[in-house]
## 1
Amino acid sequence: MTHAVKAPDSGAKNPKSLYGGTSSRRITVRDIAAAKERGEKWPMLTAYDAMTASVFDEAGIPVMLVGDSMGNCHLGYESTVPVTMDEITLLSAAVVRGTRRALVVGDLPFGSYQEGPVQALRSATRLVKEAGVGAVKLEGGERSAHQIELLVQAGIPVMAHIGLTPQSVNAYGGYPVQGRGEEAAAQLLRDAKAVQDAGAFAVVLELVPAELAAEVTRVLHIPTVGIGAGAECDAQVLVWTDMAGMTDGRVPRFVKQYARLREALGDAAKAFAEDVVGGAYPAEEHSFH
Ligand code: KIV
């Protein structure tokens, strides 16, 4: 897939900025660490295909997550649980091909790392070698620290994910806010420190109270990536279909919708259908003689 990476229209002045910077080489985990030192906030979006990824890359999104949210948003499953390594690998490779600048993070799906560090290394190695991702993400704090340690030792950058971990939906019985109450907050802090100590380069905080996320962000030297975790995180991530108004039905309260793509696409499909039925398409300029 070929496309030009244009500098995004941003007020950012630092050429090294993750968003709005002028460098067109691929972002690395060292750039992410430097942004935390500068106190710079950055955006992350999910992507599941080359064309959408190329749009976000041109818009200057510095980090793209091939999330297992593809289960709900792209593959038609009820949750992230059924997503397989084959599916994540195929779509991660597409997103890598669709991007020039973004750091592409591939999600390790449910069942691909819970057995232990060796299984995690096998799965992560596949994503790096076959799809070409620059980093992987996995869920869990203290419980996943050994996996993170081995991946990092093997040279694979790891983004951790704590707070609400959607792969545990069957254990939660839904998607409840995490870290409420003294003991739960203390556990979240222990999880955050455990993944940092294990070598994670960043940590997603999903659905945790804003005050707690702010405290984790202050305490850690690696960046926090919030989703439903308030404004104090170093970065923010949204599922792209939620962000762009493509998702069918209700979206979570923390989502801000920046477009109404579902409506726009539906209108385009209806206009096409009406033109075909009414004989307005194809017109003379669309025909060959
Ligand atoms: O799979 C995903 O999209 C995620 C984000 C919501 C962080 O894990």
## 2
Amino acid sequence: MSSSHWEEFYANHLPPADFEDNRSLLKEFCERHNEDQNSIVLVTSGGTTVPLEHNTVRFVDNFSAGTRGSASTEYFLDHGYAVIFMHRLKSMEPFTRHFTGQQFFDMLDVAETMENGESGTPSIFVKPDSVDVLAPILAKYKIAQEANKILYINFTSVVDYMWLLRAACECLAAFDKRALLYLAAAVSDFYIPSDKMPTHKMQSGHGAPTISLQLVPKMLAPLVSLWVPDAFVVSFKLETDENLLIVKSRDSLNKYKHKLVIANMLQTRKSRVIFVTPTTSYEINLTKDQLLAGMEIEEHIVADVVQCHEDFMAAIPLQ
Ligand code: PAZ
């Protein structure tokens, strides 16, 4: 993909409405952590939408729930990293991911306090048997918030994602080798360019539409070679055909020259990943019992990625 493809993409697609606000947040967060000489990780998480109309009623989406990115974020915080958590709006988020749907309400109860024999203000409390579950997660959340260690940035469409990815990289460049990029989002490979999209809701009265998708430029190319050339970049590769998994991971490493691809299969992504470098590969596996016991593969993935990042930093002499 020549550089003109990604440059054209930005030239032809407007940034999201809240882009400047997000850019300021990214700049401020990065400047603070760079001054403190912290290591920082950009975690991308969740899927991107591909709108079919400018006034979007319908869109193409994908399966990603943001489990990998949100869980990994908690483990990166445990390892002392500052984290930019760039995620799909309404996908899973660190800390709150532990209590989805009714789970949170099921942990609470209401008590009526009596005042002078009459019912007073109701108070809400955490059920005693839920305190052990909630307390450690709440404590970690508070520590991350109070230390300003996490910045939440959200996207919805693939175009939003591309604008935010570049803006984040512009701010991360100053960290040189202390920046880690952990690109776990499932970004659409296909989209409808802005000038090919109808303005208004497609009308069924006009018959079944023929939708023609085009290739999204591979942003890993400018990201690795231009935007954050000194950073440690980890991309993810998802496949459904096992025969393609390693081959395509190696192709990606050869093409973009980054450090590590973490490969996974759609069906087994919660229990098996493969770390692929230009010359080596090894698997991390969780057994059924480990999964049932609540162990998360992200804990092991992040521990190994942090080790790779530390080795990478140690191997580069100080300027
Ligand atoms: O978000 P999730 O936990 O449901 O899935 C994680 C994942 C499979 C999207 C991620 O591990 C991954 O492989 N991301 C890259 C996908 C790709 O573009 O090939």
